[in-house]
Amino acid sequence: MTPIEGAEIGSVVVVGTGLIGTSVALALRERGVRVFLSDRDPAAVRLARGLGAGEEWTADRTVDLAVIAVPPQFVAQQLLELQKRETARVYTDVASVKVLPLTQAAQLGCDLSAFVAGHPLAGRERSGPAAARSDLFLGRPWAYCPTEVVSERALRTVVELIGMCGGNPVRVSAQEHDRAVAIVSHAPHVTAAAVAARLAEASETALGLSGQGVRDVTRIAASDPALWMGILSGNAIPVAEVIEAVVADLSAVARSLRSLAGDQSAMTDVTDLLSRGVRGTARIPGKHGGPARTYAVVQVLIGDRPGELARLVQAAGQTGVNIEDIRLEHASGLPLGAAELYVQPEAAAVLAEGLRERGWQVPT
Amino acid sequence: MTPIEGAEIGSVVVVGTGLIGTSVALALRERGVRVFLSDRDPAAVRLARGLGAGEEWTADRTVDLAVIAVPPQFVAQQLLELQKRETARVYTDVASVKVLPLTQAAQLGCDLSAFVAGHPLAGRERSGPAAARSDLFLGRPWAYCPTEVVSERALRTVVELIGMCGGNPVRVSAQEHDRAVAIVSHAPHVTAAAVAARLAEASETALGLSGQGVRDVTRIAASDPALWMGILSGNAIPVAEVIEAVVADLSAVARSLRSLAGDQSAMTDVTDLLSRGVRGTARIPGKHGGPARTYAVVQVLIGDRPGELARLVQAAGQTGVNIEDIRLEHASGLPLGAAELYVQPEAAAVLAEGLRERGWQVPT
User: Fold this and answer.
1) What predicted TM-score, i.e. pTM, was given to this entire model?
2) What is the ipTM of this complex?
């Protein structure tokens, strides 16, 4: 593919060829951009080059855009060094916190007219260039946080970058960004860890009574602690504020439960929290950025054999109903399970009936 | 099917024809047991009868077993009334807390030699007889909590009931049961609600940055508050204890984050919690009751069209690899997504290669 007519971005240096940096490089290469790669670790550059992400940076030119893809606490220093060498006309970063690098960049005297802080919301549970994908950002939110002094050109260039990567640009202030990710990502992570920590000390009997609920609540707590330490340190106060709100709610519930002596009025705190929880889950946006919606669930019994699921999904496809999501619920101890097919509510009856006609067990 | 030779259970009365009671009735009917149905709500009995769960109870005989399927706070009173009328030779219940009904039953002077408290771990997000399934308990843990005075016959009968329903009997003390479900079910539920409550007050911008993590953490918080109030009230102290441990961990993290002024040593609490969280998630038992194991994930790009998923899963089936689980990750804003196929680690390469050969985009 050739570069877009009239585009700002013909050449880019990616500084830091980890998961995000290399994925940006791969996406830009597919759009015909000339991409240079830089990393403190020569092996990471070699691997990214081997993946076709670009050529090695030799600091002998000025490119259109520098993408700084290093941990949050190193962004500002890196920006300063790149600007001193006149590396690029425009600069951005991809760190998952935004106030810290912007504050440090101002303190260091960086040129903020040429810098637009950014954050693609597209992490994976794996890291490093080998996990990179050119389509990592497709349709994902990509926050960008221009300051008041930003130049038109810098703004245009970074929005173009997001578009080239297939991301969905979301303009927010750095403060709002950091509060937002504290709520929807950082504090939920810590809270999941606190629930999972109880399992670390639980009896085998207790673990044997685990169901799908606790699995879902704790899944993200399996992520790399070192990676998360950097994120939490870089967004300390917003995360602390959300955690304190969680603590206040949980403390009120614990107090109510302790004071409960057959007195249901002690439980108004608990009812209140549970109801707010229901309202909160209903506000999470749905697929395709549209409003949140509730899918209908059609449960189907399946055996645990190769091809069983394929036959089911194929049968579902023959009914003409689109499957929005699938969950497999395995019956522990038996080679039997239930598949839960999530569909638009109006399509549930059609799917259930169609599957029954094709011989599947669909409990009513 | 005819009753098992030498079995204790030929006739049963189910008291309370909600989701669990009606599911027990349906399972027993499939084993040829004569089942009688009773509920304070005549409509619920009619519906259960219509589903083939049994016949209406007329209190004119003594059956082998009475299954008390009413909310926790009503179990003991119900047991007393049934025993006064010599309704059955053996009694059990299915409430999700166990100390409360046993304590109340002792206080009321019930005959505990004929009663074995039970709890099948098989809830659904829906309730009522219409949601009942005869296979609801297949392979699921079913806790039972005999007291010291229990008769051999009562014990044998209740274990037989669990077997007839396809459950996996787990013998625990009532105290241990209640502590266990506080850890793996009740406290995680309240904690998920506390995270979801933050979303109820979050900006649209914050919600727009939501990813899969916060969706998983908060999913169970969408459940019916009224149902959960009964459960939490009935297990108040064990749940309070677990929540207090969660609060202690979260408070320590919030303090560390607040005191952090570039001083990483303030963060040892946080590292410690994240690491304990990782260990905790690793202890959740895996499929088929075996040890927890980590599946490999193969990601495949798919379009959002009817039949697309069917074609993918069929192609996967042709590689001979068994799919353990599927997650669909939709790219918000675009009709494109990634399917994550969970497979045994040793099968991942075979699957990825086989799918590529069949023309699927499998990012490396």
Assistant:
1) 0.74
2) 0.74
